[in-house]
Automatic annotation (TrEMBL):
GO molecular function: DNA binding; DNA-binding transcription factor activity
Keywords noted in UniProt: DNA-binding, Transcription, Transcription regulation
Domain of life: Bacteria
Coiled-coil regions listed in the entry: none
Pfam families hit by this protein: GntR
Species for this entry: Extibacter muris
SMART domains: HTH_GNTR
Keyword hit for tRNA processing: no
Taxonomic lineage of the native organism: Bacteria, Bacillati, Bacillota, Clostridia, Lachnospirales
Protein name (Swiss-Prot/TrEMBL): GntR family transcriptional regulator
SUPFAM superfamilies for this protein: Winged helix' DNA-binding domain (SSF46785)
PROSITE patterns: HTH_GNTR (PS50949)
Domain annotation HTH gntR-type: ranges: 11-79
C-alpha cells in the first residue's frame, strides 16, 4: 500500500490518509479482509505521528470502511457499494460547489456558470 503525504496542501494529513485509503478500496486495490499496516508501521513509513495515523484509522472505521480488532490490527470491511457511491457523490458535490464559488468570486453570473456546466455535460 502506497500512501503519499503532501505537506504543502491545506488538507490535514489524517484526511489525506483517509482519502487515499478510500481510493484504494474503491479501485479494488484493497479488498475485504485485507490488513492495513499497523499504526506504528505506517507512522514510521510516513514519518508522522502515530496519533495522526490512529485518527485516520478511527475515521475510516467510523465511516464503515475498516474494522479494528484489538490486538489483531485494522482490516478492510465488506465493501458496501452504496456507501462508496454515496461517498463519491459527496466528493463530486463538494468539488462542484468549489467551482461555483470560484466562478462567483471571479464575477461570472450564475447563468453563465450553468451554461458552462451544460457544455461540459454535453461533452
Amino acid at each position: 500500500m502506497k500512501i503519499i503525504i503532501n505537506t504543502s496542501l491545506m488538507v490535514p494529513i489524517y484526511e489525506q490518509i483517509v482519502d487515499q485509503i478510500k481510493m484504494l478500496i474503491r479501485n479494488g486495490e484493497l479488498k475485504e479482509n485485507d490488513n492495513l499496516p499497523s499504526v506504528r508501521t505506517l507512522s514510521k513509513e510516513l514519518k508522522i505521528s502515530a496519533l495522526t495515523v490512529k485518527k485516520a484509522y478511527d475515521n475510516l472505521e467510523s465511516e464503515g470502511f475498516t474494522i479494528t480488532v484489538h490486538g489483531k490490527g485494522t482490516y478492510v470491511a465488506a465493501t458496501n457499494t452504496e456507501l462508496l457511491l454515496e461517498e463519491q457523490k459527496k466528493e463530486l458535490e463538494a468539488d462542484l460547489e468549489q467551482a461555483i464559488q470560484k466562478g462567483r468570486r471571479c464575477g461570472i453570473s450564475d447563468e453563465d456558470i450553468k451554461s458552462l456546466f451544460e457544455l461540459i455535460l454535453e461533452g
